[in-house]
Specification:
This protein has helices at about 5-15, 35-40, 45-50, 135-165, 205-210, and strands at about 20-30, 55-60, 65-75, 75-90, 90-100, 100-115, 115-125, 170, 190, 200-205, 215-220, 225-230, 235-240, 255, 260, 270, 275, 285, 290-295, 300-305. By secondary structure, the chain is α+β, with helices and mostly antiparallel strands. The chain folds into 2 domains: about 5-185, START domain (Alpha-D-Glucose-1,6-Bisphosphate, Chain A, domain 4), CATH 3.30.530.20; about 195-305, 3-layer Sandwich (Rieske Iron-sulfur Protein), CATH 2.102.10.10. The strands form 5 sheets. A 7-stranded antiparallel β-sheet has the order 1-7-6-5-4-3-2. The chain has a 4-stranded antiparallel β-sheet with strand order 10-20-19-18. A 4-stranded antiparallel β-sheet has the order 11-12-13-17, with no helix packed on it. Strand 15 and strand 16 (about 270) form a beta hairpin. The longest helix is centred in the middle third of the chain and has 31 residues, at about 135-165. The radius of gyration is 23 Å and the shape is elongated. Bound molecules: FE2/S2 (inorganic) cluster and fe (ii) ion.
Length: about 325
């Protein structure tokens, strides 16, 4: 594959009579370079997470994607043809044009410490010299759009950084992600990097459990052992707090038709278990992949299992349609 970096492209276009204005925007955060690489390659989050852009991919290869994006700028929808490709180690390049303006963008990322990464995005606005007066206006619009995109993207990266600090990693850490692999939202990509110890068993007494009528109960923390208990239609629904695909936290997701939809890629997660409310005092324990629920006459006991994280697809979970 032959790819051109931003600078190579600019060199050719400058020779053809174009002039460019360049500027850089930088983000540093508590995440790994892989999280930045993943975030920039990740196709499905675009239409689910980002409010101002709607992408319609036309061709997706391992390292290239072309799409028509509908981008909202100051309330106006601009159709943009975008070509986006992996252009070198820790680098991604994309370009688009609008009327007689060309925009070439290059994003690079580097590690600046343990779970700390710097991402630099360089924008090059190009046109014939007589359109150069427009460059500062375009720059202002791009900066505003960048801030908006980052306000939605950075929490994803930081969440993965948090999971890494807890000892998790991702099956796809290492080589650059491919665009196409990000479409498999039923994959379970979380792995453990260290020997994680399950939390000690907990017990929720009847008084504590009664509070679930007003507010969901969250147990332990939002890792693969964390549970969210919610009362619906005479049932106690038991949901995971962590999406096994890429690690999103599910705590704030609305429960609708007894399921939650992951905020990152739209995977639909059904309850891991449901118990009648109130349950009979002689109820049987419920064995789950990482938990054992022990309902009895005095409340609910929860034990946490040391089962390794698995990459299997759970056929009981539904994929949301990724409508490309
Ligand atoms: S993190 Fe991808 S669907 Fe949840
Ligand atoms: Fe994004």
């Amino acid at each position: 594959m032959i790819t051109k970096s931003k600078d190579e492209l600019i060199g050719k276009l400058t020779a053809a009579g174009f002039v460019f204005s360049q500027f850089r925007l930088v983000n540093e955060g508590d995440y790994e370079t892989y999280d930045a690489d993943w975030n920039y390659k990740d196709i499905p989050h675009l239409n689910i997470l980002h409010k101002l852009v709607n992408g319609f991919p036309t061709s997706i290869e391992e390292h290239v994607i072309t799409s028509v994006n509908l981008q909202k700028v100051m309330g106006v929808v601009l159709p943009m043809v975008v070509v986006n490709y992996h252009s070198g180690k820790n680098r991604q390049t994309y370009y688009t044009s609008f009327l007689s303006l060309l925009l070439i963008v290059e994003t690079t990322w580097e590690s600046i410490g343990e779970i700390r990464t710097r991402v630099v995005t360089t924008y090059a606005i190009g046109s014939k010299w007589y359109m150069k007066l427009l460059h500062p206006i375009v720059r202002r619009l791009i900066t505003r759009n960048y801030e908006n995109l980052m306000s939605e993207d950075i929490p994803m990266r930081s969440r993965r950084g948090e999971l890494r600090k807890w000892g998790y990693g991702f099956r796809t850490d290492g080589p650059p992600h491919t665009f196409i692999s990000t479409l498999h939202i039923l994959d379970e990509n979380m792995v453990t990097k260290v020997d994680l110890q399950p939390p000690p068993p907990i017990r929720l007494g009847l008084e504590e459990l009664a509070k679930v009528a007003q507010e969901d109960i969250l147990t332990t923390r939002s890792d693969h052992w964390g549970l969210r208990l919610s009362a619906r239609d005479g049932q106690l629904l038991v949901f995971p707090r962590l999406c096994p695909h890429e690690g999103a936290c599910l705590d704030r997701q609305e429960i609708s038709t007894n399921s939650v939809r992951c905020p990152w890629h739209g995977r639909v997660l059904r309850p891991l278990a449901s118990l009648p409310l109130p349950w009979p005092a002689d109820s049987d324990p419920v064995d789950l992949r990482y938990h054992r629920l022990i309902p009895d006459g005095n409340g609910l006991g929860i034990e946490f299992k040391d089962t390794p994280l698995a990459a299997r697809i759970d056929p009981n979970e539904q994929a949301a349609d990724i409508d490309l």
